[in-house]
Amino acid sequence: MTTIESTDVLIIGSGFGGAIPAYHLAAGGARVTVLERGPWLRGEEFDHDFLLGSSYTRVFDFVVGDGMSVLGGNCVGGGSVVYFATMPRAPRFVFERHGSIGRRMWPASISRDSLDPWYDRVAEALPITRQSWDKVPYAGGLFASACAHAGRTANPAPSAIDVDMCTNCNWMMAGCRFDAKRSLLLNYLPAALAHGAEIRPLHEVQRITRTADGGYQVHYRIVDGEDYRILHDSGTIEAKIVIVAAGAGATPVILQRSEPELGTMPAAVGRYFSGNGERLNTAVFDEDRVREVLGLSRPDGRAYQAYQIGRGPTVASWDRLDGNLPEFERYSLEQLYFPPGLGTILAQVPDATGPSWFGVDKKEMLRRWQSWLTIFIMSEDDNEGVFGPPPETGNAHRFSQQMLGHGPLRYRPTANTRRGWSLADADIKDILERDGLAKVAPWTNDLVGAYTVHPLASCRIGDDPATSALDDRHELRGHPGIFVTDGSAVPGALTVNPASTIAALAERAIPGIVRAAQERGISVTYGAPSPDGETAGRRAVLNAR
Amino acid sequence: MQPDNPERDPERTLVLEAFADTIIPGEKRFPEDRAVAGATTGGGAVAAGAVELLETPAGGLAEALDSLVFSLNEHTREYAAEHGLTLDPAVPPFVALPFPDRTALVAALTRPDHPEKQMWVGLALFSNMAFDSAAHLSTPQALAAGHPGLLTIGYEQPQADGLWRFDSFSYGRQLADLHPDTTATGSPA
């Protein structure tokens, strides 16, 4: 017979949505347990290796749905371990978006101005810094130069990377070997541990049930450390507060599976999923034209041939982030590196006459891989993703030992979403094909549907109970004591990389969660400094309240 | 992570090779090579180890390969009948198809509306991965051994400790004007 353990606050997931509450609640005096379905890897365990079974496949998750595939983290630290650490704040107009619901999607209490102090807290904690041109890798420089040639602006994007420690190896999707990327393993999580929080890796939460006294039981299975298709023992932990932060691809699935015992879920659980309007284009540059037209050359004489060098996206063009433009026509364009494997099969041969993603012409394109440049579109999609019935366990039917599975998400891009993509594709072509610099084509959506590395909005905050699963304090409607603080809480596409916003919203939710915990008899206070002890961010948010 | 059945069916291997060669084509390994069509120069997915990767149990496709091979040959017979092609009975049907017809059949099987699309895309994905990332091999070792895919894409060699570091990485100068509405934190306004 198994013993039921108990804690004050049970947190599902250890990415931004889990690590931030874990730290603040533990520092405030609560007993905190974090259940993470992925493994716990550190520094030297992050491999530079594509071999199946290396850190690349252990910490990274790729779930193929019907019309949408989702890439995300699967490890202690969640998305922060596999992401590219590009951390712009969302532009002001994003908070005024209506989407297709005929009213403002965001709660009235949140605007860019009201969120800025919380962005500041995150920036202090990780930290996030402005980037300078002298450290922009070749690929970012090439994109900037092409933008300037086309009369556009381009910015080095703010980043949570310590560039002095960075080797520009571009292996950061497998975890940063050199601790240059300021993932949650280096700030919030160690600080949470220091305050007594417990983190349990390879614990996959399956469902939540209610206890007689208004608390909750969280039921998990142990995941095999090598073959994630195998689940071992099960267990149960009782808690007064549950924070669901399993990621936008998993949080709604856990809640849907819990519905028979927990009671009716808000209609917006598992609906309004957004892929952040994401889409990729790959350009193949003519090295001679890069030298002749843009005047670029490396110290060894090559003009570019540096796709592999760098640290993901470093330069973005924000010319179309203009609040005066119509909704669904605003987007950012960001230079990106995408490693081989997943990052090449979807790239299409520009102006293909035969098959575009495989065959003789594709191989010719691959011979010029070092002259590739991938451009990332983040636009305004239409929140058209809907989750079907949950799989038996987890959020996907796991196909490979690690990384690859099939999930219940269905996504059919609307005309609004497709209009944004089409405008952005044409814009990229205009910038990069000028004067014969490059040939460019969008990635195909025919193989795995659309795709996103920034899943959002599947359990979102809002003021309208019909179209939002959470109130503006992130509490699940109808289920007091359950909070959702991950990317699924974000109301919609942000037109920029969302981690900074997800983290700021999690920071903003903490005082409300602390109050709810106090009301449930937990001895906890709000007011911890930044994980490294800085206090400027704390002072600012306390003054703002 | 060794293949579970090194003594596998040679005809099954030929069909898998012919499929992988359709995804990333290569030159013939020997003059009588039937599986590799020789549609281009240099090693392709087969030389890169596509069959080894497909046969790796960790990948998840290994158990389905028998039925995939059976099904691919069935589709080939239908294709040949529709197009009035006669298939050489000395080799499995898909291997007997000329390269342009292999290409046309794979394109049809992976179209968004094909009911079996998902499994053929899976087979293509792994064939591609063998070539451009050698996922069945340690990457530094694969490079040291001259892996044809990694060399074809020009993947750089690691340093002596098997890790990648690029000391020269930046043009080192401002190459565009900043957006006029950039805030003090470097974000869009």
UniProtKB/TrEMBL annotation, chain A:
<dbReference type="GO" id="GO:0016995">
    <property type="term" value="F:cholesterol oxidase activity"/>
</dbReference>
<keyword id="KW-0274">FAD</keyword>
<dbReference type="Pfam" id="PF05199">
    <property type="entry name" value="GMC_oxred_C"/>
</dbReference>
<dbReference type="InterPro" id="IPR007867">
    <property type="entry name" value="GMC_OxRtase_C"/>
</dbReference>
<feature type="region of interest" description="Disordered">
    <location>
        <begin position="525"/>
        <end position="545"/>
    </location>
</feature>
<dbReference type="GO" id="GO:0004769">
    <property type="term" value="F:steroid Delta-isomerase activity"/>
</dbReference>
<dbReference type="GO" id="GO:0008203">
    <property type="term" value="P:cholesterol metabolic process"/>
</dbReference>
<keyword id="KW-0285">Flavoprotein</keyword>
<feature type="domain" description="Glucose-methanol-choline oxidoreductase N-terminal">
    <location>
        <begin position="67"/>
        <end position="258"/>
    </location>
</feature>
<dbReference type="InterPro" id="IPR036188">
    <property type="entry name" value="FAD/NAD-bd_sf"/>
</dbReference>
<protein>
    <recommendedName>
        <fullName>Cholesterol oxidase</fullName>
        <ecNumber>1.1.3.6</ecNumber>
        <ecNumber>5.3.3.1</ecNumber>
    </recommendedName>
</protein>
<keyword id="KW-1207">Sterol metabolism</keyword>
<keyword id="KW-0153">Cholesterol metabolism</keyword>
<keyword id="KW-0560">Oxidoreductase</keyword>
<keyword id="KW-0443">Lipid metabolism</keyword>
<keyword id="KW-0413">Isomerase</keyword>
<feature type="domain" description="Glucose-methanol-choline oxidoreductase C-terminal">
    <location>
        <begin position="452"/>
        <end position="506"/>
    </location>
</feature>
<keyword id="KW-0753">Steroid metabolism</keyword>
<comment type="similarity">
    <text>Belongs to the GMC oxidoreductase family.</text>
</comment>
<dbReference type="InterPro" id="IPR000172">
    <property type="entry name" value="GMC_OxRdtase_N"/>
</dbReference>
<dbReference type="GO" id="GO:0050660">
    <property type="term" value="F:flavin adenine dinucleotide binding"/>
</dbReference>
<comment type="pathway">
    <text>Steroid metabolism; cholesterol degradation.</text>
</comment>
<dbReference type="InterPro" id="IPR052542">
    <property type="entry name" value="Cholesterol_Oxidase"/>
</dbReference>
<dbReference type="Pfam" id="PF00732">
    <property type="entry name" value="GMC_oxred_N"/>
</dbReference>
